[in-house]
Amino acid sequence: DYEIYSTARRYDSNGDGILSKGEAAKADYLRVSEQTTDLTGVLKIFPNVKRVSIESGKNKEVTVNNSKISEIDVYGDYITALKGASPKTIRVAVYKQKGTLDFSKVSGYGKATAFYVVKANAKKIVMPNTAKLEKVGLSSCGLSKIDTSVYKNAKELTLDGNNLKSIDLKKNTKLIKKS
Is the distance from CB of 65 to CB of 84 less than 8 angstroms? Predict the structure, then answer.
């Protein structure tokens, strides 16, 4: 995977072409392409990674198996399950799947407190664990209507780039930031 190779080169501080354990331990961010569907071994090499960006392509599941990952960005053609993951922040783009995007039934999304869908072509988006979400973003998703009342604990709500004619925020009493 070229993205993993790029990470290794970035942290090879002495430029000898060999990534030592100490150099690998400095990595806090990792980006992987659709060729990597199981991050278990990669995350053993980079033990202190806290954020992962996954270009999942057509893959509908990626194995993470690491509870230390606090942020995951996942971009792909379809909703991608994150096996063995429990990040607090998730950013998602879904390029080909249309209709209702239901993230509540997919592994790896249930413990997020910040959830952002940054690109989709959806009629409806069902978020996981809506009662615990503090930050919600539904940007450029093609939505024409949304029930914001399900995000009753959200302090931040971003709905830009949709086809919304009106938004009722009366039940969103904890909002601090909206856009």
Answer: yes
Query: Whole-model pTM?
Result: 0.91
46: its two tokens: 């980079």
Check: CB of residue 39 under 8 Å from CB of residue 56.
Answer: no
Task: Give the type of residue at 122.
Answer: A
Q: What is the pLDDT of residues 7-62, one digit of tens each?
A: 888 889 999 988 999 999 999 999 999 888 999 999 999 999 999 999 999 999 99
The whole-angstrom separation of Cα 178 and Cα 169 is 10
